[in-house]
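[step 3/7] fold_predict: job queued, chain A
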Amino acid sequence: MTRNRRLSNRTLQLVASLILAAACSADTVHNIFSDDDGGFGEGGIDDASSAMDASIRDHASGNSGRGGSDIGNSGRSGNENSGGNGSSGFNGGLERDASCAGETQSVELTPLDMIIALDTSYSMDFLGKWPAVKQAINIFVSDSDFVGLGVGIQYFPIRKQCSANDYAELDVDVGLLPDNAQPISDSLESQCMSGGTPMAPMLEGVLSYARQRAENDPERNVVVVVATDGIPDTTCISESSGSTPNTLENVVALAEEAAAGEPSISTFIVGVGTELTALNEIARAGSGADAFFVDTAADIQAVFLRALTEIRKRALACEHAVPEIQSGTQVINYDKVNVVFSFEGNDEVFFKVSDKEQCDQIDAFAWYYDDPDNPQKIVLCPETCDQVQTIAEGVFNVEFGCDTILF
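[step 4/7] structure written:
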């Protein structure tokens, strides 16, 4: 099964539309999400190659796909039956019948809580790393575009450096911006660099906090962002502390378990330095993508800020609250829901699958409900999410009235 993980921001402008159906009567469209962030330059996000762009175009016209190049991902295979009737071919050329569309409502992005776990080890005091990272976080939490974003912060090492329970008590609890911007700024100012890199007990504790928060407020998406200039060292290597021994393998396992759990908690990694490729193992386990790397020879502040902004964008892209019908007493028929992807003037109907596990059984773009019995969110399948979350622009809409396309 061949899948693309990145799209070129240079040549693609993609529109994703979410369509809910339940016999109603108005036909309007609401643009509810437009992200104009440009491509991510320094810091670990590569543009996809032109071959990947060609693969997508070929698939839409019914030609065979061509493999991608510079990032090592192959192009999505073309479907020989896709272009026969002039429709696009991402999932076999299914045409959208809009004649059944009724009332349209917008879907809202699931609110996001971001927990920043920040390395304050002795080595962060060199090469201007700490002042630049501190300023980048201050700018991020003060940005008026991020009002309503939940942000909290923890540091490692702390005084009881091997205690996961102590790391679960954040230095600044998650709170909504802009109100939490000043407490975070004050916290950053009070830090001093010392000690090693006890990443395992830290992550165990912070993930425990994140999981509890997600359980208490299931309507919010919670992610962890670990920013560090090192990898797990010999600090806290003994099991006598009662916490997870501080090894790379254990950190990877913690991130993987949290991502696969319920509720799912993603772990993103920002490496402050260039010789930290081992961090990719943690990032892939926790978020399905490589770590962001900040070159200390470049503009650390600007690149770190772009990393945080990109992580926010990625975390928001793939879960959307199910909207309410506004007209009269009508209720949503959850068996009539479609997701449509618009590309260069073509609309593609995404398949609906029963759950996340079924996503791996389909070589096409797909989605599912968070809870089939009581849907609260529309969730894109992981491989579909990989496509959507790296695009420069995207628009999500909902209509009520058309039959669901099932896998």
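[step 5/7] annotate
The first helix runs from residue 50 to 61.
The first strand starts at residue 14 and ends at 20.
exit 0
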